[in-house]
Specification:
- By secondary structure, this protein is an alpha/beta fold.
- The chain has two domains: 2-192, inorganic pyrophosphatase (n-terminal core) (Alpha-Beta Complex); 199-315, Diaminopimelate Epimerase, Chain A, domain 1 (Roll), CATH 3.10.310.30.
- Helix content is 38%, strand content 18%.
- The protein contains twelve helices and twelve strands.
- A six-stranded parallel beta sheet has the order 3-2-1-4-5-6, with helices on one face.
- Helix 2 runs parallel beside helix 5 (127-138), helix 2 (21-36) packs antiparallel against helix 6 (144-157) and helix 6 (144-157) packs antiparallel against helix 7.
- It is globular and about 55 Å long.
Length: 321
């Protein structure tokens, strides 16, 4: 892997659809590391980063693929994803590219290992943590932008260090990023405290549709036409639902701009929402996964609920009647 990086001269960094903080942060950090090694770097994603991450976008150019030919490259790096199908319009051009492929990821992979090189650790809290390890192996010191990228990856994928994937390495690296100039309060404000005034009203409308199943262990929330799509801080909504004492599984369905149904699935115990999400073509982590379902909403909701109840009955068999 290190040899492939050193041998490259022009690199494409890409990730999954609707790139989140881990994907965006890891790309920013790796872009700066590779540029420090003298590489030409193109960051190219199927979708643009959210406005919350404009402090990174002002320093790193995040290109959006709109069907054009890929920039010239001899190495392609997929970050925070190992399945080409989740790269949207980039999937086929990347598959057809003759360049060497490198995957840097911490998700569960299903299917054939199609890449040439990989840095995969499913126990890592964030992809940005793997980029930090890679930078050390390459002998590159992180600059302020790369440090902000790594910190962004860590805090967004650990829920600001409150999820169970927070470990000693995560906290140690986060502390290192602070010594390198990252100001946690400013990043917290940028990521989580810039919501639109309509957000509380949207939350109220959505929460009015909340339903409990499986003896209160499942919280299901589906946005209806009245509530409308919710493209704001879904983590805030999911955390509210997970705060309910008896709830073990949270499923949130919302309507995307293309009319399809987006699923965000979370658990706070040992229940595997990744297994559930994969039934609908999605994936992720054991405790945090997602998928895209075909509409209409009621059909998607019914199919998801039926599958979820089967999984929950199997998992909580002694306690569910």
């Amino acid at each position: 892997m290190l040899a492939a990086i050193h041998a490259s001269s022009s690199v494409i960094l890409t990730g999954h659809e609707r790139p989140d903080g881990d994907c965006i942060g890891a790309q920013a950090a790796l872009a700066r590391v590779l540029e420090a090694l003298g590489k030409r770097v193109h960051v190219l994603n199927p979708d643009p980063p959210e406005a919350a991450f404009d402090y990174l976008a002002s320093e790193v150019e995040y290109g959006v693929h709109t069907g054009e030919a890929l920039p010239e490259h001899d190495l392609c790096v997929l970050l925070d994803i190992s399945e080409l199908e989740r790269c949207g319009s980039l999937a086929e051009p990347l598959r057809a590219s003759s360049a060497s492929k490198l995957v840097i990821d911490h998700h569960v992979h299903h299917g054939d290992e199609w890449w040439d090189h990989c840095l995969v650790d499913r126990s890592a809290s964030a992809t940005g943590l793997l980029v930090h390890r890679l930078a050390a192996a390459l002998g590159v010191e992180l600059d302020p932008v790369a440090s902000a990228g790594v910190f962004t990856s860590l805090v967004t994928d650990t829920g600001w260090f409150k999820y169970s994937n927070t470990d000693a390495e995560t906290l140690r690296v986060a502390g290192e990023m602070v010594t390198r100039g990252v100001q946690p309060d400013l990043l917290f404000s940028a990521i989580y405290q810039r919501n639109e005034p309509a957000l509380p009203h949207e939350l109220g409308q959505l929460l009015a549709n909340l339903e409990y199943f499986a003896d209160g262990r499942l919280a299901l929330l589906a946005s209806d036409p009245k509530g409308g799509p919710f493209d704001g801080n879904s983590d805030l909504l999911l955390d509210i639902l997970r705060s309910v004492d008896r709830v073990e599984v949270v499923l949130f369905l919302r309507i995307a701009s293309d009319g399809r149904i987006k699923l965000s699935a979370r658990s706070k115990g040992s229940f595997d929402v990744n297994a559930l999400a994969r039934e609908f073509g999605g994936g992720g982590h054991v405790k945090a996964s997602g998928a895209t379902l075909d509409g209409p909403m009621e059909a998607a909701r019914s199919a998801l609920l039926e599958a979820a109840l089967v999984h929950i009955e199997r998992h909580f068999a002694p306690a569910v009647t």
